[in-house]
Amino acid sequence: MADNAENNSEDEFRDMMRDFLSGDGEIDPAKLAGAAGLPNDPAMIQQLLSQLQNALGKSGDGINWDIALEQAKNLASQSTVVSLPAERSKLEQAMHVAALWLNEVTDISELTVEPKLLSRSEWVTITMPIWTQLAEPVANSIANSFTDVLKQNAPEEMTDMLSGASKMMRNIGGTLFAMQLGQVVGQLSSEVVSGGDIGIPLFDEQQAVLVPQSVFAFGNGLDLPDSEIHLYLSVRELAHARLFRHAKWLRLQFMTSVTAYAHDIHIDSDAIAELASDFDPNNPEELRDAMTNGSLIPPKSEEQREALERLETVLALVEGWVDVVTAAATSRLPAREAIAETVRRRRASGGPAESAFATLVGLELRPRRLREAAAMWQHVTDELGAEQRDSLWSHPDLMPTAADIDDPAALVARLRDGGSTPDDIDQAISDLLNDESGDRPHEGDNS
């Protein structure tokens, strides 16, 4: 009997939603599309309604991320221009020269896979798995929170209907979120110029990637030689890819940290309840604003702040190393400094789509200490040479810390003394053995 009641309420809710999606509801479909962050375009609105209708008939529970991929590819294709063979040849030659220049300034070995030149649509297809990995915890939290709040605040006559339709409501909420993510990634495809441009490792550790259309657009308004821009961007991308290939643990450590941070993000149920109580069906843009301005995600916990600080340190270390190596490898380019400053400013501010991702997922990927980290790597290079600098990427325990960024001289002094300090376990064993022998001085005694 209970199963029959649940099925009846689910069918009732499905019928109500289908009536709405057919245009027989209070909310204008165009306004619903606006709430989902989509443009007021008839084809886009029809796509949204079609996806929501599919969500109603979906038997499983969970988010269909193929929707995000389809949305992003559709958006990317609108701005994609196929690069000409002559343009691709220029970038292939730039990559070849860049590899030779890098060999002169770092012992980190070359890639074993040829660099890829991707269209914006291809970039979307290859990188979407990483974006969905980052977004899924927040998407699930939003869908579940909306379901709970709607059930708690629904009129009494709708309680039975909603209680049997939780799975369907989560599917609808997940569909809206997936379409928003697709919109953001589609916009990102028009901003990025290379695989390492965002900072996070979007590709395999052996893969260097350029987006020719964006590379050729990078120099618009800069009054700098295109050939120098192409060489500089090629060196940066190859340096980034070489580092992740050399330090194979780095990509796993980075993505594990990002995913752990994202999994701790949750949605403020009180904020959603307040949104639901004040919700005006004739003004669904309120829903979009709430989802894209970060107001539904509560302030970071102490654990999250610490995790974010660790992430920012790793980002800064990677980007700072790439900056220093790229500067050395491109010393022949007269416009090197001007291009480098443009890259740093662009990297520090991010584009509109990256900002949208930060508010949508609650994770802002900014190397806030980039200049300080680059200064540290340069100091190590000047004092100890490129070989010892690059050896710090040979093991996770050797990677510099935030304290090393603050005090590069202390890092250099430690390296001159034979390496880093022992780890905690080694130190504890040493302390125990020395205490048992009675020869161990008190902790903090430097004598």
TrEMBL record:
<protein>
    <submittedName>
        <fullName>Putative hydrolase</fullName>
    </submittedName>
</protein>
<dbReference type="GO" id="GO:0016787">
    <property type="term" value="F:hydrolase activity"/>
</dbReference>
<feature type="region of interest" description="Disordered">
    <location>
        <begin position="415"/>
        <end position="447"/>
    </location>
</feature>
<dbReference type="InterPro" id="IPR042271">
    <property type="entry name" value="Zinicin_2_N"/>
</dbReference>
<dbReference type="Pfam" id="PF10103">
    <property type="entry name" value="Zincin_2"/>
</dbReference>
<dbReference type="InterPro" id="IPR018766">
    <property type="entry name" value="Zinicin_2"/>
</dbReference>
<feature type="compositionally biased region" description="Basic and acidic residues">
    <location>
        <begin position="437"/>
        <end position="447"/>
    </location>
</feature>
<keyword id="KW-0378">Hydrolase</keyword>
